[in-house]
Amino acid sequence: QVQLVESGGGLVQAGGSLRLSCAASGCTFSSYTMAWFRQAPGKERELVAGISWSGGRPYYADSVKGRFTLSRDNAKKTVYLQMNSLKPEDTAVYYCAADQYGIRWIAAEYDYWGQGTQVTVSS
User: Fold this and answer.
1) Which of 19, 22, 47, 95 is the most exposed place for a label (fewest CB within 10 A)?
2) Is the Cβ–Cβ distance between 27 and 38 less than 8 Å?
3) 46, 55, 64, 69, 78 from 8: Cα distances, Å
4) Buried/exposed code over 14-49 (b: 16+ C-beta within 10 A; e: otherwise)
5) pLDDT (0 to 100) of residue 53
6) To which H or E segment does residue 8 belong?
7) pLDDT for the residue numbered 56
């Protein structure tokens, strides 16, 4: 059973930075596409960034391009989301997701999820 555990959320002022981590267990990590989604109150869960199991350049939503950086460490079975120049509109619960297919935009298509970590950006 794949388990994902996120960490690194918190409260930060606008313009600040946070780094989220997602540690995986119970799987051959290098065989999984990893993604970060976020969900703000009253909104649908949206894809923020993803990195395929097959490698290649990460995908980023337009709203975070140039500010967020996604990376994975297969040896540590961990994926990271470095978030810089944070804005109040980045406030949301951030979820790590995993799947054995490629990067997809629809949350329901991912098989495994973490519990989420709250990111709050104050203005």
Assistant:
1) 19
2) no
3) 19, 24, 18, 14, 13
4) eeeebebbbbbeebebeebbbbbbbeeeeeebebbb
5) 86
6) none
7) 83
What does 62-118 look like in DSSP terms, one character per residue? Answer: TTTTTTEEEEEETTTTEEEEEE-S--GGG-EEEEEEEESS---S-GGG-SEE---EE
| pLDDT values of the chain reduced to their tens digit, one per residue, 123 residues | 899 999 999 999 999 999 999 999 988 898 899 999 999 999 999 999 999 988 789 999 999 999 999 999 999 999 999 999 999 999 999 999 999 998 999 999 999 999 999 999 999
Residues 6+ apart with CB under 8 A from 55: none
Angle, CA of 119, 72 and 116, to the nearest 5°: 30
Its sign, for the CA torsion 13, 117, 97, 30, is positive
